[in-house]
Amino acid sequence: xxxxxxxxxxxxxxxxxxxxxxxxxxxxxxxxxxxxxxxxxxxxxxxxxxxxxxxxxxxxxxxxxxxxxxxxxxxxxxxxxxxxxxxxxxxxxxxxxxxxxxxxxxxxxxxxxxxxxxxxxxxxxxxxxxxxxxxxxxxxxxxxxxxxxxxxxxxxxxxxxxxxxxxxxxxxxxxxxxxxxxxxxxxxxxxxxxxxxxxxxxxxxxxxxxxxxxxxxxxxxxxxxxxxxxxxxxxxxxxxxxxxxxxxxxxxxxxxxxxxxxxxxxxxxxxxxxxxxxxxxxxxxxxxxxxxxxxxxxxxxxxxxxxxxxxxxxxxxxxxxxxxxxxxxxxxxxxxxxxxxxxxxxxxxxxxxxxxxxxxxxxxxxxxxxxxxxxxxxxxxxxxxxxxxxxxxxxxxxxxxxxxxxxxxxxxxxxxxxxxxxxxxxxxxxxxxxxxxxxxxxxxxxxxxxxxxxxxxxxxxxxxxxxxxxxxxxxxxxxx
Amino acid sequence: xxxxxxxxxxxxxxxxxxxxxxxxxxxxxxxxxxxxxxxxxxxxxxxxxxxxxxxxxxxxxxxxxxxxxxxxxxxxxxxxxxxxxxxxxxxxxxxxxxxxxxxxxxxxxxxxxxxxxxxxxxxxxxxxxxxxxxxxxxxxxxxxxxxxxxxxxxxxxxxxxxxxxxxxxxxxxxxxxxxxxxxxxxxxxxxxxxxxxxxxxxxxxxxxxxxxxxxxxxxxxxxxxxxxxxxxxxxxxxxxxxxxxxxxxxxxxxxxxxxxxxxxxxxxxxxxxxxxxxxxxxxxxxxxxxxxxxxxxxxxxxxxxxxxxxxxxxxxxxxxxxxxxxxxxxxxxxxxxxxxxxxxxxxxxxxxxxxxxxxxxxxxxxxxxxxxxxxxxxxxxxxxxxxxxxxxxxxxxxxxxxx
Lengths: 480, 403
Description:
The structure holds two protein chains of two kinds.
Chain A: H1 5-14, E1 19-20, H2 23-27, E2 43-45, H3 50-63, E3 67-70, E4 87-90, E5 97-101, E6 106-109, H4 115-122, E7 127-128, H5 141-147, H6 154-157, E8 164-170, E9 176-180, H7 191-195, E10 204-211, E11 213-214, E12 218-226, H8 229-241, E13 248-253, H9 254-261, E14 275-283, H10 286-302, E15 307-310, H11 314-325, H12 327-331, E16 337-340, E17 343-344, H13 350-364, E18 367-372, E19 378-379, E20 381-385, H14 392-409, H15 428-431, H16 434-447
Parallel strand pairs in A: 2-4, 3-4
Antiparallel strand pairs in A: 1-2, 5-6, 6-10, 7-11, 8-9, 8-10, 12-14, 12-15, 13-14, 13-18, 16-20, 17-19, 18-20
Chain B: H1 3-11, E1 27-28, H2 33-46, E2 50-53, E3 67-70, E4 79-81, E5 86-90, H3 95-104, E6 107-108, H4 121-127, H5 134-137, E7 144-150, E8 156-160, H6 172-176, E9 185-192, E10 194-195, E11 199-207, H7 209-221, E12 228-232, H8 234-237, E13 242-250, H9 252-266, E14 271-272, H10 275-291, E15 294-299, H11 305-316, E16 320-324, E17 329-334, H12 338-350, E18 355-359, H13 362-368, H14 378-389
Helix pairs in contact in B: 11-12, 12-13
């Protein structure tokens, strides 16, 4: 598409320097956070305002060109990748916080606002934006909306969908729609809830109103270590059954602990532990949080914790959390490539599933490190490997498949927060039948009848049964 | 062959052995999700118009239809998992029975919807009618892990699952929660549970609305986080003046600390209720809405709650009001006309506040619609979704009014 009138038309909208056509430039957008998928987009365009997004999308609609919305590219499912016949619409320049309303505890942001920046901006008002993906210092709110992102503190506070009040969305044909209301009550059915987590298939969110919550006035962070992975998994169930809901309840296994401790993010986790649990309790009342922390500590000890230590001060708390949040980065030390997997199982199934994952890793001769949101049953088995070794990637794929099948067999699902994207497409028929997949596709056709936005993601079209109510997609026009 | 004979041949005698409707519409009670699918598939091919019913205690069973499909025989609870804090229940189970079964296993569904205790779970989900606990535990959708529903042409569709986090595919559960049955009949619901709170306290304060609005501000400023923070009209609270009811639920330490904090922030003006008094207060407030012919909800910004209460008082009266001022949610009950509701919806739309009609006699529902005054671009999306899930327009649901 390089050098065509089409590219010139894009440049007229956003400015020539915000249209990337040279191969070396486009290659920088060929991956997201998952190293196993590589797709070089045909053109990369970076609109700088909502009006520019509308104009770009209308141009693409007029020409019938497929496009893929993208935020910071930190996703872990190959979801924000475009092929060479498609345009990558990068939204990082739409990075303004449009409104902070402390009285009503809400903020309105553009999609390119970085997650951690929003929390920092509202902190002086005693507020926080609670979804906190591990990539929060880089990932964008728009990306979080597309993926319905989670994070450690979602155990108590919920995932992105629980915090989005209203959206302004540019549909595939360039129409602008307003979904939801700042008060949280929808105009009609809950289209905000439907849009969040649609992985870019329903359009581009250009304005996002989010709910803010008060910063906790009291926090306790506990680190418990265990001599067996299974014991740690069982302790998770005991904590959950207590009725006290921790703000976060994270688990790391020995491989992960050692990777962190060998890195600059060393947090003081015991290197000889088979697993550690990192728990946080928070709330508005110091005495209540302290009492709940005592109860939880007793539960952990009664369920096999070797030691339970509390963060003595904010600095130690920060250090304990830094180790957890940078664990994926620390694993980069283990090998050249890392596949970060994502699945969810019922919490009571954690001990068995963790053992199964260990067996699968051993059978394939792979190094697997587990760091995950144990309180939600949201597993992240991470496979370290060197993609240059012949045949190794095939083994990684086969092991990943077996792990997914084990999670499904335990009553779980294939993704809890990373999305389906390209990576999990093949697993969708394992959890949804042809009618359910067809229903999803039919909904997508309501928003995007030509299936031009982020094509080929989320729903495996070949597995969909025919759907009488679906709008028939119009034939694709030739590319400009 | 009559319609009922045909259904009998299709689903067996049990499916039609249900109390007759008051308006003579044949009533059918399929005994399984597959039977619902079979029935609706047939309805599609025969062109039958179908109204969906639960226990018939919330939305009046009065829509004109060829067939009334009641979920009352879908009353099983296939799974309660205390260790996972999840449950799976069929849509026709009564909330009272479900609550009891959950409590027996040490678990709790943190929902207190308006209406009678025997309202079905499916009704609560389909109408997204959350009660005062929405302050601390969120709206209906926040308690759902997934649903299975049947489309207007008889397809069984599953969405979500039974695990705590799930982003596999589009979240159709959100469409079904609060869809008023326009996008399918909900047959099975996967629920997120909590452990039964170790402590549960309700405290009340009577006063003028203005006085209680100030107290609300004081509570927010003190960082108190109640499970419910509800402003009840005098009739609803069965007291002489407006009543602010605060409920704390959780660990004994949490509830005790919050109660102490509430006393400090408000000068000890609240009175703690005994457990039986608290139960009576909340039950009466919930059931009162089932005794009024019309109920609607509005969702506003918290700082405009007072202004909206004035507006409601002016336009439709304020005898039966239950409001969560901390989150801007207001439920109104009473008697009113379609014209007044339309006018109110228009006024509220000008203030960027949606009005959702929760219950009303069919003529009012048909005229006003559960939804209306859509924002830009929403109408075509809703119409497209209706065509998708009900291509033959089998469901008799007053999604939008006739205006």
